[in-house]
Amino acid sequence: MILNSLSILNYKNIAEASLSFSDKVNCFLGNNGMGKTNLLDAIYYLSNCKSALSASDSTTIRFGEDAMLLQGNYTRLGKKEVVACAIQAGRKKMKRNGKEYKRLSEHIGLLPLVLVSPQDWDMIVGGSESRRRLIDRIISQANHEYLDALIRYNRALEQRNSMLKQGYSDPLLYESVDAYIVEAANEIYEGRRRWIDQFTPVFMQFYNAIGGNNETVSLDYRSELNDAPAEKILAANFERDRALGFTSGGVHRDDIELMLGNALMRKTGSQGQCKTYTIALRLAQFDFLRSQSSVTPLLLLDDIFDKLDSERVANIMRIVSSPTFGQIFISDTNRQHIDETIAAIGSDYRIFSVASGSVEESSCSAGSSDESLGLK
Q1: What is the pTM (predicted TM-score) of this model?
Q2: Which pLDDT tens digit goes with each residue over 8-37?
Q3: CB count, 10 Å around CB of 55?
Q4: CA gyration radius, the chain
């Protein structure tokens, strides 16, 4: 899959931009706070119907404006695809080839994408929510049944919590909503468990390929459903949930422990090891999505070279230069990093200079073209 061009209007600090891309390497170069990450985030938005960095859609609209618009022109499986998103008056519209989606979930997975960013550090040091989000976003891009189960679970959970908060106590009132929770919880649990089994060996390979060593890393899936069925968890916690006013047990409290040997990475890992860990997770995500689809995901690398020694940087560049990876978007403040990456990958490229929300193409290879080569 190739993103041929991107049009932006009033997205964060970017007033307006129209960019045409190389089929292989595209680099955004500029100082911090100039808008490089916002460009990557705009590409992310068109794949995931949301920002990777902003919790609210309202904060994606440029200050002082009342609407924003994104449009991407893609080549996917040899066919042209036009995806657009507009937010105005608090309403969001996503369109594919001019036709508006009835449900945003229908779009997820069409344009697979992996973003590697400094915010991934939260997977190491943050709470369980950030790690659950990692699992759910990866699996949902490849499995619509899993995404549907997540949506059903969250809706039923919200209804149950509302009943608990309002003080309903009759167990019969909870039977119906609990049945929905249990059905969806079982699908989510099985989906996460299968994903961990499939994902971990690939993740280990990437970690050691970057780090250049043979350390043992693993993902330990922690879930109450490992020990008891969902219906028993709800029943056992019912009186406690009434007192608390919310549902205290279930797959919405699952976690993945990120392990280095027999210890938690966040407690024993160095900065370099932790950074290697998060990048390996993302590269394994890329491999997983590629294996689940005939479409090669886009790879977005946002300021990834910080806290890494030269050997690890060289190993990452060697990995992403393989034919496995397709179109790549990179942001950095250091022109040397950009030049070294282009030299390592050795293919078509375009470099864009970003300053105060303005974007200008500064250089490109002779082979770069506005026309897609029709690659997947």
Answers
A1: 0.88
A2: 999 999 999 999 999 999 999 999 889 999
A3: 8
A4: 22
